[in-house]
Specification:
This protein is mainly beta and about 130 residues long. About 0% of the residues lie in helices and about 50% in strands.
Length: about 130
């Protein structure tokens, strides 16, 4: 019997995008006055063991324009296909972003691994 090993076998198994301040909800990118508030992007990769360049991009769904590139990081160590390798970026610096739907596109080793929908959610002043 042969194993099915077609393709690059680089898969994103879990993702979450959430405000760092839980007062702004548990999901999505918080936006106030068309600027982002601090948020995190967490993902768990399954891929052959090794070191890879890993990136993500925030993309406008209608135009497919990249509106933000995630932090540039050195090569990341991926544990292998049997163990998930988790990464988290905490984005503290604000950038311009209008509320609405977006896509997060993830790449590992220069190859697209996944694309997920994310919402930029308008929030008002800090709740009491």
């Amino acid at each position: 019997m042969e194993a099915d090993v077609a393709g690059l076998q680089r898969k994103l198994m879990r993702t979450s995008v959430r405000p760092l301040d839980p007062a702004y909800g548990s999901d999505g990118i918080p936006v106030q006055n068309n600027r982002t508030l601090p948020f995190s992007v967490t993902r768990a990769w399954s891929a052959p063991a090794g070191r890879y360049l890993e990136r993500w991009f925030l993309v406008h769904p209608a135009t497919r324009t990249v509106v933000f590139e995630g932090p540039i990081r050195d090569e990341v160590l991926i544990w292998g296909l049997q163990a998930l390798s988790s990464l988290t970026d905490r984005l503290m610096n604000s950038f311009p972003l209008e509320p609405g739907p977006y896509l997060l596109v993830f790449a590992l080793g220069g190859h697209k691994g996944a694309e997920i929908e994310v919402e930029a959610v308008p929030v008002s002043g800090r709740p009491a």
